[in-house]
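Quick check before the chapter quiz. The format below is the same one you will see on the exam, so make sure you can read both the input and the output lines.
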Amino acid sequence: MGTSTSHRSPSTPEWEQVRELYQQPNPSPGEIAARVTAALDAETRAGLSDQTVTTSLDSLLEAATTASHDGLERLLENLGVGGEPVALQVASGLRREADTRIARAGIASIFGEMGVAALTSSALDACGGAMEAASLGFDQVEANLGAWERENRMGALTLNFLGREMEQAYRYFVSRDLGDFVGSDSLPLLTDRNNLVAGVGSYCFDTTNSIWVPELDSRILNVMEVGVEQRVVQLQPLFAQAVEAGLSALAAGG
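Here is the expected output.
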């Protein structure tokens, strides 16, 4: 599968085509993302929506539902956090909750690590944005987070999480091999390497956050009405559909 942090990308013709781009000056993030997508095997594609990732997504959607129905104070109590800045407390609490759920279920994976990282970023987005997180007050966070459920935008929140996951995943995929090219004409400095990784990540977020999945908002709302034991089971195929739509959009890039 080639997703271990201790290995470079697999030695396949598709991944060789990805590495060829790293030898060129200023390759476009869209072209890199398209070639990486073409190189992903079926196991990796399926892993992007596995149970660990879906558990993190479920924690995010549950937080928005709680903020909408019961208020932010109840959510903070449930997460066992409090204090300021509120948005940062929500994000850290959700990350800890997802880690606990994943550990309890014994389903840890590299994709789960990406999902938990995506949860942290997406939670800040949902509360009002990472750039504003330190200054957002209680009332602002409660209004912003609860609005996703009240305004029937849970599908949009799901796609935000998808975008953050793809940002994490493709940064990882690209980072595995770039060390071989730092100091070359294409990537003379470490800052050039870092800028390329960041550019691919941003491109993947922007692309997958803006896709369209039919009836996703209403379907997500229906799933959130079932008991917690069944939510991940019912949520996973919906998220898998979103992942495949996101991968199709990335495959068309560049």
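If your answer matched, good. The longest helix spans residues 154-178.
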